Amino acid sequence: MPKILMKGAEAIGEAAIRAGCLSYFGYPITPQSEVGEYMSRRLPEVGGVFVQAESEVAASQMIYGAAGAGVRVMTTTSSPGFSLMAEAMSYIAASELPAVVVNIVRGGPGLGGILPSQGDYFQAVKGGGHGDYRCLVLAPATVQEFVECVMKAFPLAEKYLNPVLLIGDGMIAQMMEPVDFDAVKTEPQRDVEAWATTGCKDRPRNVVECLWLDPKLCEDFNFELIEKYKKMTAEDCYFEEYELDDQPEMVVVAYGTTSRIVRTAIEELRKDGYKIGMLRPITLFPFPFARLRELSETSHVKAFSVVEMSQGQMLEDVRWAIRDKFPVGFFCRMGGIVPSPEEVIDFLKQEFVTRGLKGAVS
Amino acid sequence: MKTIFERPQSMTKAETHYCPGCTHGVAHRMVAEIVDELGIREKTVGIAPVGCSVLIYRYMDTDMQSAAHGRAPAVATGVKRVRPELCVYTYQGDGDLASIGMGEIVHAANRGEKITVVFINNAVYGMTGGQMAPTTMPGQKTTTSPKGRDVNWCGMPIRMSELLSTLRTPSFVVRSSLHTPHHIIQSKQALRRAFQYQLAGTCFSFVELLSICPTNWGITPVQSNKWLEETMLPYYPLGIFKTPEDK
Questions:
Q1: Which domain holds residue A276?
Q2: Which residue in A55, A327, B121, B149 has the most C-beta neighbors within 10 A?
Q3: Could A88 and B107 be called an inter-chain contact, meaning their C-beta atoms sit closer than 8 Å?
């Protein structure tokens, strides 16, 4: 199929349908309401289910129910709405159900704004709801990559019986870019008869629950989760390396929208001779700790920088990854302001000076 | 030897954890009997609440999902919409349904979800230890209304059947009681009719069952049945509030 020009939010909806997700429960919130609008039109055409819930609380509990019944299901929301879904995220993780959730992050805290932000990193990566659990978190940077990640999210959720969370922002959801839906082959759903509430015909009953009144059993389950997250780290940690193969002095870490600006900045700086590259995490959990640490232990890398639309949430993970071997330069814009390439270039040039690197002189 | 009484096939052999005199056991059994009688065990999914009946999934030998506090109607919506061939019911207490879950129950009813809701109203929070519920009677002493429910600050008890019957979406709404054998027989008839409406794809169905909680009311089961009759019945009248045939 040729590429078609499509708005990010609508492409997210279409990608889910192409991945075999025929049920969507959601609540309108800017800047991603177009996903629900799209699904309300498209799902009936393909025999699917669309429900506009009364709240994000209810929408997320509906996907808990639908996931428990063993179908591919998705909801989408934006930051304040995702806070309301925190309860269900914890239950979905604890009940070990596969479900896909998209958070189009907007400026915060509070009601915040509607423009792009990365201020929900902690909430996405460190838990968000109560208890010890993790989502597998994907952070695509383009509409095309978002489509591919949505299509991969369902098999990943089924592989781990765990919620998969995609985070983006209004830049991606509202922008139109060319999309090729055939770039990813859809994987068929795994068999659900062992655990899903499909009716106990010719098998023992299935129970979807997450209550352990015996603390030993609850602890045992937590140990099982640790093993699950180790497996994710070993098998499904994704990142992109950009201009890292010619022994750069500086590694910039950025994801999603900011990675696109950093990419432009690096293109410009390289024209002036700066030896600089980027590591772009695609999964924020599992985070590419090991690769960042490897880079920090090479002889050529002398500095790290982070560019983020938050107060420095991912920065903490980068500092931990390299065990603070170097000071990590940090540049941020927040509250819905996307950094310009010029200010990122100025920041990175200054970092070369501050860290005493050769920079353009080399 | 002729068997005249036995465990419903739709119940497991687990012993329930309920207090002496509690009516949850009666309500569970009635639901299981109806599932057996309608021959729907293999296509039934029950949604458990948070509250005393949180462990109902241990007692029902059908597929079950548990729900977060108050969210059972949303979870049931998710199951029923994607698998409409299933029979999906929620089983919820008054704290779960009428307090924290008020939004979910009203909207599930208003969308006309083809599910059945079994609502146990015993005018108190049971599992957490006898706190005031939205359904606690005026003047009723609980651990959070030690001088009795003061309606000046807490409002009057919420009558869920009356409230839901104001919605214009067709539904079946009935209030029954479990305080005498006669009322238990009536309750089972109401429950059967509620499940039949679902199986026919007709409408949302809601059965409120007035129940007793001797432990948290601090009186004997016999006194509890009397208190229900004298205190709750005048405020919570029994009967069918709405049928899908209503104009």
A1: 239-354
A2: B121
A3: no
